[in-house]
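Example record for the data management plan.
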Amino acid sequence: MDSLLAQLLLLGFLAGAANMLGGLILFPDKIRKDYKGLLRYLLALGAGFMLAVTFFEIIPKTIQLWQSSTPSGSENGLYLPMLLILGGYLLTQFFEHTIAPHFHLGEEVHSDHVISTKSAYTGIGGFLIHTFFDGVMIASAAALDVRIGFLVFIAVFLHKFPEGFTIGSMVLAAGKSRREVMLATALVGATTLVGVVAFHLIGSYVGFSVAYALPIAAGVTLYVAASDLIPEINHHGGKSPLVSLSVFAGVGLFFAIHYVVHELGSP
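Corresponding structural encoding:
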């Protein structure tokens, strides 16, 4: 096993494990209530970090890849990668809000939000698409630069706990037990690992795959941060300015880690 694959497996496992831990927060009730109070801040921190990673790492690297592969002076050199970014964004919209219903994070545990088993599993199906691309994004970024892969991993990791909490909430709201909660969160977490391994294996045989996978993953990440997390933050944040400031804190965290990884980590 090469060192890059070993690192990717570790990152994919940690990201998936965070899904399961998010589901475990639902047990017992006291921990669930305490955690839910912090959920909006963690969401805001993750949203800010993901936005910064998308605009300062993933999209610039995508542009560099395509510019280096197209003849100089070509007017349409960036048409396809921008289309792929839009495609990734719309793909997430399609699966989350056309096929799968939308849920407010953590609210489905209340008695007035009881849902059917079919609705819960359909919602989990939407999460599976998203978490698969989480893994693809980590692997495709790491294929360019391990340091970028690490930054993308942090962005993914930050929203994994709230994601696991949400999945567990849906399962409980459908009348299922703790066992079903753990199975659902484990399945969604494993899909991230599948995305990591699938891209690494395919990328070993298909030339230029990073240039196609990276912009799609960028569109997915942009959707999750701007269209999923930010509205949830605004919905749950109420009038507290600290929640909104946590988004800026997430951006600041990105630049701090970016400096450590790229500047202090350089030989």
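Summary line stored alongside the record: Residues 3-69+77-264 form one domain.
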